[in-house]
């Protein structure tokens, strides 16, 4: 109902007659059907809608709100847990921002632990049908942040769960008339789809994200992730176009972002070339200077990519060094799917010592991240 302007206006009016008419219109209900839901006579509903009668007692209005799944205060009454929920909403944006800072600084488990209670409470409220438009945006933001954080900390076999959370965020983003948030959600969902192996869907979402972006930084970030997805999907032309677009955006940028900076772009470029079976070109890219990573986890990602490229070009000593360093840092930062990448690279490069160390680290991480019995 909040996505329909007429229904939203009725809900915020506080006029019970308008609310009931809007509810019936949105749900295609007759007065008789609505009366049955509420346990009232049809004539009583008709009198409320024509303002000839109105439940004057708090209990009656609470009954209507509860039966229709509407926020209690819209009908002029309070719910026993409204004050507690209002406090949660008041600080919800701060929780999400702090969790994002924690994730980007490498404290991903801490980010998940902060986001999960907020998301769970908002989901429970949504299941009761008791969220308003602003709170729906908070729910969408919590879903997105939680999905991205889970996509960093989960092993590969569970990454579809992260994509499911960002997908749920996209469902709401498409209804909320916020172009910037929609572009961000498309970008993050596309990246989680890529990590979950759904490459065609990932490319489609990321192309949409690039087209929908309203800022240079957002457009550049979408292109960076599109380049990664296109490389993984074996689409060389789309990959090359996205890399060129990233470079142009980077030249125009006044500052660096997590996804739009020389270090990240170099890693994405090299990894895409390797995925396209061009390891010698990937090695040339990695030999270029690129500064420092904008977020700690990118150092791990780049070390794994370096190990993969060196192994693919026959430089086993360098590959072993890079992958050993990646394994140690990935375990420290609790990044299981980067450990899995490192183990695969070591297997392909016939580096048994790294395979053994990586599998041991992965088993330890899985023990830490598994639900308690």
Description:
The chain has helices at 5-13, 16-27, 31-38, 42-49, 58-68, 82-104, 108-127, 133-153, 159-173, 179-195, 199-212, 216-232, 236-252, 262-275, 279-286, 296-312, 316-332, 336-348, 352-369. With 373 residues, it is mostly helical. The chain has a domain at 5-79: Orthogonal Bundle (434 Repressor (Amino-terminal Domain)), CATH 1.10.260.40. The chain is elongated. 42% of the residues are buried.
How does CATH name the architecture of the domain at 5-79?
Orthogonal Bundle
Proportion in helices: over 70%
> What is the count of β-strands?
0
Give the ordered list of helices and strands.
HHHHHHHHHHHHHHHHHHH
What is the distance, rounded to the nearest whole angstrom, between the alpha carbons of the first and last residues? 41 Å
Q: For the report, how would you describe the main beta sheet?
A: none
CATH class of the domain at 5-79: Mainly Alpha
Overall 3D geometry? elongated
Computed structural class: mainly alpha
The CATH superfamily of the domain at 5-79 is identified as: lambda repressor-like DNA-binding domains
Strand content: under 5%
Rg from C-alpha positions? 25 Å
What is the CATH third-level topology name of the domain at 5-79?
434 Repressor (Amino-terminal Domain)
Mean pLDDT: 88
Instruction: Catalogue the unreliable spans.
Output: none
